[in-house]
Amino acid sequence: MNLHKFIFGLSVLLLLAYSLFLGIKFSSVQEIIPIHYSGEGPDGFGSKLFLWLQVGLNSILLLLIGLIIWYPQKAFGEKNDYLEASRENAIKNRQIFLSVISLVVTLILIGLSLKEII
User: Fold this and answer.
1) Which UniProt keywords apply (predicted)?
2) Is residue 43 part of a domain?
3) How many domains does the chain have?
4) What is the pLDDT of residue 22?
């Protein structure tokens, strides 16, 4: 299995596990939750439905990144002016980079709202 597929798969699995966890715990989450923080703590509040907005946003980002990872020829074109030794290495490096970005974004978005669920 390719490294980029494994890392991207982790992102998807994390999002699915978080979604399942949110679905199970959603009824016990407070109706009003903090949705914005400043240096002094929470200063913006909203409905607990914002937790699902985060899941939707993360899903859209994963879909867009996944399309670039799975169809690199369309995303990167047929150019051969890469810094790497070959076009294949350049595409492989970009796929790994994008899959790591997807994992980082997923971890950040989940981490921001996880404390409201627990």
Assistant:
1) Membrane, Transmembrane, Transmembrane helix
2) no
3) 1
4) 94
3 Cβ contact list (under 8 Å, min separation 6): 96, 99
What pTM was estimated for this model as a whole? 0.83
Query: Is residue 51 one of the residues assigned to a domain?
Result: no
Kindly report the average pLDDT of the chain as a whole number.
87
Output DSSP code: residue 26.
G
User: pLDDT value at position 64?
Assistant: 94
Alpha-carbon distances of 18 from 40, 43, 84, 92, 115, rounded to whole Å: 28, 25, 37, 29, 12
Structural domain boundaries enclosing 25: 3-29+58-117
17 within some domain: yes
Residue pair 91/76 in contact (Cβ under 8 Å)? The answer is yes
Q: Is residue 76 part of a domain?
A: yes
